[in-house]
Design brief:
Elements: H1 3-12, E1 19-21, E2 35-39, H2 43-57, E3 62-66, H3 68-77, E4 83-85, H4 89-97, E5 107-111, E6 114-119, H5 134-138, E7 143-146, H6 152-163, H7 167-170, E8 174-177, H8 180-188, E9 194-198, H9 199-204, E10 208-213, E11 223-228, H10 237-244, H11 247-255, E12 259-260
Helix pairs in contact: 2-10, 2-11, 3-4
Amino acid sequence: MSKGRRDTRLVAAMGTLAVILLAGTPGASAQERVTVFAAASLKTALDAVNAACADDVGEPATISYAASSALARQVEQGAPADVFMSADLDWMKYLSDRNLIKTDTETQLLGNSIVLVAPADSKAEAKSENGFDLAHLLGDGRLAMANVDAVPAGKYGKAALESLGVWASVESKVAQAENVRAALALVSTGEAPLGIVYKTDAAADPKVRVVAIFPEDSHPPIVYPVARTADSTARHTPAFLKCLQSAKAMKLFEAQGFTVLAPVVSN
């Protein structure tokens, strides 16, 4: 890709909601350092994995965390990412259908669960079963969720509530956030009495507690795929992808509550 085209596409991606977290040594070449676009729910675990993989890769990657939907659209608009890590298969397929990832590098890396959370000092109790009275539990409060039309965590949460027959009773009470970590923050700060997030998000925030775990069969399987983008130029990208499947990386993912789906790759 020419420099002019890359610059133009980068400008087109500006103004998005992603938070750019830079890591690595000053002055490192942009064509060596790996740029990763990753689902917001991966932050705690992936930050640890990134640090652990730095020696194997050559340097820490630059990581941008946001909703999978926002990141996929940034890639489509030309943002210079080398790796895309989604919280569902749909947004990976979105890029694959547009020939924006290298399909031979795609791996279904991790699994997760969704849970109902409340502030840590809340007395709320619930069982996520058919027809449970979530509306009564909310009272005059709001249910924090990631955007239910686009963001994977929101889509999984809505599917679970529909499956259990309670979506219609709480739809008007939903406070939709731009990504799952933003939804978590609404509960953590007490702005919302309840929220639906991933199990791993709940584990990462001591200011919330799990009220109920949604049955696995109440929503589509939660799968985190990863792939190299079609326009990737960073020469360390293969090493980064390999390290994601190393034993040390998998232990860090599991420590945050993720389920490992991909086979472990030895160095």
